[in-house]
Design a protein that fits this description.
This protein is mainly beta. It has one domain: Beta Barrel (Maltoporin, Chain A), CATH 2.40.170.20. It is built from five helices and 45 strands. The strands form six sheets. The chain has a 22-stranded antiparallel beta barrel. It has a six-stranded mixed beta sheet with strand order 3-4-9-10-7-8. A hairpin with a 2-residue loop joins strand 36 and strand 37. The longest helix is centred in the first third of the chain and has 17 residues. It starts with 6 loop residues before the first helix and ends with a strand.
Length: about 800
């Protein structure tokens, strides 16, 4: 926990560090790293690599060297993005009692829905669009009338150790990217770079190395792993196995292969008291063949595979175990051809299949409220999404006129998607009720969820135009993108405009601006859930001997939804002063047509009433071009600050701690907040809304010892949410009150040692400690005594060893 009295000392610490670096001896910069208008600027010192960002387009580039230096923890994609001040995480994302779970965290850009980000691998979109917002039920009861049960917008749970580079776009995103309202994460898998090697690594994490923080009322349950849904994992063993290799095949071609398994075994207690060991694992496989045929033509072909597999128990009532898989497998191809006249044509292609399966030991659930006996499960289900994508792009050579230069890019995307939900057999829930004196009271109710297959397929087309104009000291990007799919039959036109003015012509002072529209994604579960509702039949046996049969309403085919979109205005200032590079950005996001559920005439349906407004301010300061030299060490430090003010009408439940999404029923009635009657969309955003985040990082390389030491200090302001008091005003309006969470400061550290073992081999040892000071805060947002306290993660330790030869 961080009190206000600590703030002056933190400011003094930051000022002192940067003052020292400004006066320290510097080294010569890389002569190839002087053009500040390029996409990325890589500065290499003795094994210290700092990758900057193209500030005009709002892209941050993380190369493999920087990925190794960051605190990657369990090796998930989300762990890398914590250094980006535009990225936010859920307050409920990680807890102190369930570290045995392997599921990666989700994240948000500028307050937008976490399930509205775009994920790409080697230029191809790989989102899971069936039901990406159902992660809260990861270990919970599988759904029968909707496609929940722990899916994710990330079609592939990537191992960051297999990545060559990540591009992260948060503002001024070019027209070549579509299908998001938040941000873009474009992962580039490792490819042959001319060096042959084999790399082997083994990592481990143990519960004995973690500091747990538990509500005293839950201490007995925690120590006995008294949960069926992985809420408490006091005993766990995590292991990771990593293999990667590159091999040249000819003078012009080479192959890359990478494989990893990250696994966790932890103890759980079944509802009947029996203990059981769960296994949660994530597998990755990547293979790629790259060929430079000649000076004009190069190609790459790849295979990618990712799977998360874990155990589960149906519910506290129904004890049937199940196993669940979140799987992605795909083939990719990339061709690049340099045409005469300086033009370049490229084509990216991908064939991907996403799959979420549940395999249960029982499809019949029984409950007797008279005796308390219950048993059974909810059967099997399979959700698949198969997509084929072609993405051509033509970059024309720069045309130089008398006063201006133009570089025109034309591209598009053709994507066919075929999705299915399959229930292979009927699921029966048979429930007996206690005797009731009412004639129409229920004695028994049998609910039948019929077997069947629901399919949705569609074709989406996109075309875009991007013109980069250079006029004197002004750089403009004029872009326009059009998207259409024949499922919802929406035609979406998105203009993209950004400007970069080099104020004095020396690249040291630049003013940035942008105005852009981003259209998001529409999810196939809208249609699947509507049809699933019609596959339900309830049979009620009443006291008077009558039988009532109720059929669910099939609402499929009734969708009339617009595409969610976000309008962005951006202003920025980039300044180089002495050894420092400073970047200040202000981003306004107004999002409309968000999908919500509403009740109308007793029925639940989707509409476009979701809306939010977010104002973000980010500031970054580094001295990447002039590292601090002390003795035989080189240190690069970076300060990042992110401030956010976000409001919206998608409000969460403070008692369950869950945020809102398109499945939660919306409420548009005004509320009384701070003594004023306001619209619900004016309430502070419920989640992914940390109002202030400050981070200070340093990477120190000591080449004489083959040692790298990285440190990361993070300060998160707790922020204020609006909480329903469960009271009404005199005129019947809900009364909301402010609830403020505590501030948190953490220190993460990572040490890597790469000793030379033999002439052609190198060892590897990594020790990483998160939250070194073991500082935690209570994330409970409910005022109900029955809701337990929950804490952020305490201190954890990772150890990894390996060899490269």
């Amino acid at each position: 926990m961080l009190s206000d009295s600590h703030l002056p000392s933190i400011v003094a610490l930051l000022t002192g560090l940067y003052g020292a670096s400004a006066n320290a001896q510097t080294t010569q910069t890389n002569e190839n790293c002087t053009d500040r208008q390029q996409h990325s600027c890589v500065q290499t010192l003795p094994e210290v690599t700092v990758t900057g960002q193209n500030l005009a387009t709002g892209v941050q580039v993380l190369d493999h060297a920087l990925i190794e230096q960051l605190p990657t923890g369990a090796g998930n994609l989300a762990d890398l993005l914590r250094i980006n001040p535009a990225v936010d995480f859920s307050r409920k994302g990680r807890g102190s009692t369930n570290s045995g779970v392997m599921r990666p965290e989700e994240f948000s850009f500028h307050g937008q829905a976490y399930y509205q980000n775009l994920f790409m691998i080697d230029g191809i979109g790989v989102n899971n669009d069936i039901n990406p917002a159902s992660g809260n039920s990861d270990y919970g009861t599988p759904g029968l009338t909707k496609t929940d049960s722990g899916s994710s917008p990330q079609g592939y749970y990537l191992d960051v150790g297999l990545l060559e580079q990540i591009e992260v776009y948060d503002s001024n995103v070019p027209a070549g990217f579509g299908g998001f309202t938040g941000g873009v994460v474009n992962a580039r898998m490792k490819r042959y770079d001319g060096h042959d090697f084999v790399d082997l690594r083994y990592g481990l994490q143990r519960d004995e190395w973690e500091s747990f923080h538990v509500d005293p009322r839950d201490l007995d349950k925690f120590q006995n792993a008294g949960s069926y849904n992985a809420k408490f994992t006091p005993i766990y063993h995590k292991d990771s196995y990593h293999f990667s290799a590159q091999q040249g095949l000819t003078e012009r071609s080479g192959m890359t292969l990478g494989m990893s398994r990250r696994t966790s075994d932890f103890r759980q207690t079944e509802p009947d008291g029996d203990q059981i060991d769960f296994n949660d694992r994530i597998d990755n496989l990547h293979a790629r063949l790259d060929t430079h045929w000649n000076q004009q033509l190069e190609s790459g072909f790849s295979l990618r595979y990712s799977e998360r597999h874990h155990d589960g128990i149906t519910s506290p009532l129904y004890d049937a175990p199940y196993v669940q898989d979140h799987r992605g497998i795909g083939l990719g191809g990339n061709i690049k051809y340099r045409l005469p006249g300086g033009h370049t044509f490229s084509m990216d292609a991908g064939l991907d299949r996403m799959q979420d399966d549940i395999d249960s030991t029982s499809a019949v659930a029984f409950q007797d409220l008279n005796t308390g006996v219950s048993r059974g499960g909810f059967g099997d289900s399979e959700r698949t999404q198969t997509s084929f994508t072609l993405a051509p792009k033509l970059e024309l050579a720069t045309r130089r006129g008398s006063t201006a230069e133009h570089q025109l890019t034309v591209g598009g995307e053709l994507r066919y998607v075929d999705s299915h939900y399959n229930r292979p057999e009927d699921v029966i829930i048979d429930r007996y009720y206690r005797p009731s004196p009412r004639p129409n009271g229920k004695q028994r109710e049998v609910t039948r969820y019929a077997s069947g297959n629901i399919g949705v397929d569609y074709l989406s087309k996109s075309i875009y135009l991007d013109d980069r104009i250079r006029w004197h000291r002004l750089n403009l990007r004029l872009g326009l993108r059009a998207d259409h799919n024949d499922w919802l039959n929406n035609l979406d036109i998105a203009p993209r405009l950004s400007a970069d003015w080099d104020l004095y012509g020396d690249g040291r002072t630049r003013l940035l601006a942008g105005a852009n529209r981003y259209y998001g994604r529409s999810f196939l579960q809208y249609a699947i859930n509507d049809a699933l509702n019609g596959m339900t039949t309830k049979t009620r046996y009443k006291n008077d001997g009558s039988i009532e049969v109720i059929h669910g309403l099939d609402r499929s085919g009734q969708l009339d939804l617009a595409t969610p979109y976000s309008d962005e205005l951006m202003l920025g200032w980039v300044q180089q002063a002495g050894p420092f590079n400073s970047t200040l950005k202000l981003v306004q996001r107004d999002s409309r047509n968000g999908i919500r559920s509403i009740r109308e005439d007793g029925q639940k349906r989707y509409d476009n009433s979701g809306r939010s407004e977010t104002l973000s301010l980010t500031w970054e300061l580094d001295h990447a071009d002039t590292p601090l030299i002390i003795g035989n060490s080189a240190t690069v430090t970076r300060l990042a600050l992110g401030w956010k003010d976000s409001t919206g009408n998608l409000q969460g439940n403070p008692h369950t701690g869950l945020g809102d999404d398109y499945e939660s029923v919306g409420n548009d009635e005004p509320v009384l907040y701070q003594g004023v009657l306001i619209d619900r969309r004016e309430l502070p955003a419920w989640d992914y809304n940390i109002p202030l985040h400050v981070s200070l990082s340093s990477v120190t390389r000591m080449p004489a010892w083959n040692l790298t030491w990285s440190n990361f200090i993070n300060l998160n302001n707790g922020g204020t949410i609006a909480r329903d008091t469960r009271r009404n005003s005199a005129d019947g309006h809900d009364i909301y009150e402010d609830f403020t969470l505590e501030d948190l400061i953490t220190l993460d550290t990572k040490v890597q040692w790469k000793p030379r073992l033999w002439t052609a081999s190198q060892g590897y040892v990594r020790v990483e400690v998160s939250n070194v000071l073991d500082q935690v805060i209570n994330t409970k947002t409910s005022d109900l005594d029955g809701v337990r306290d929950a804490y952020t993660p305490g201190r954890k330790v990772w150890l990894e060893v390996g060899m490269r030869f």
